[in-house]
Amino acid sequence: MAGLAALAAGGLCGAAAAAGLRLPADHRFPQGEGSPGVVTFSHATHVDERAPACLACHPAGFAMLRPGTATGLRAIGHAEMEQGRACGACHGKQAFEFDGCELCHK
Ligand code: HEC
Ligand code: HEC
Ligand code: HEC
After folding, report:
1. Ligand 1: distance of its center to the CA of 48 in Å?
2. What is the domain extent for residue 26?
3. CB 106 within 8 A of CB 42
4. Nearest CA to ligand 2 atom 41
């Protein structure tokens, strides 16, 4: 049971690592005009190993073959996130909002 407790304490990140899911490395977005800091996206904190819903984000939300672009054509920015696309499919809804800049921009 100690193992289970450690899993629970580690949250999704620990669970994914423990299950040996091979997730892509963290993605650092290139900074757009006026970006207050580098945004790093982590699969480890977003993917639930028990239900790895890759399709929630790929390919419609994020083009795997052209990282950093929501549609494969344009760089991700706040204009489209505010319209509920890219990170805005969840952030500002069931996940934390955009007002805490430093939660994403480091
Ligand atoms: C919460 C959203 C989300 C989920 C869920 C998600 N991804 Fe991603 N994925 C991203 C983002 C964001 C990027 C990086 C930016 C981009 O590709 O546009 C990315 C990039 C990738 C890349 C390209 C990596 C690189 O370095 O070029 C692969 C491959 C990938 N994801 C596979 C997966 C797989 C497999 C799953 C399910 C186990 C998954 N993703 C689940 C959001 C997600
Ligand atoms: C499918 C829904 C979904 C999408 C799409 C999504 N997130 Fe998240 N994200 C979450 C949830 C849920 C959490 C957990 C925290 C919470 O509930 O507020 C989270 C947590 C985070 C965290 C804190 C954990 C960490 O990794 O440091 C950051 C930063 C973050 N998201 C950035 C992003 C960025 C940047 C994007 C777009 C590239 C993105 N997210 C897209 C749902 C999502
Ligand atoms: C949920 C994650 C998230 C939060 C919170 C967030 N941003 Fe961003 N932001 C991004 C991503 C992803 C990009 C694209 C990469 C980049 O340009 O750094 C971006 C880009 C930007 C850009 C340049 C492109 C554009 O759309 O103008 C500015 C300026 C910016 N953010 C300002 C802010 C400010 C100010 C706050 C707080 C009020 C904030 N951001 C909060 C994720 C976030």
Report:
1. 13
2. 2-103
3. no
4. 87
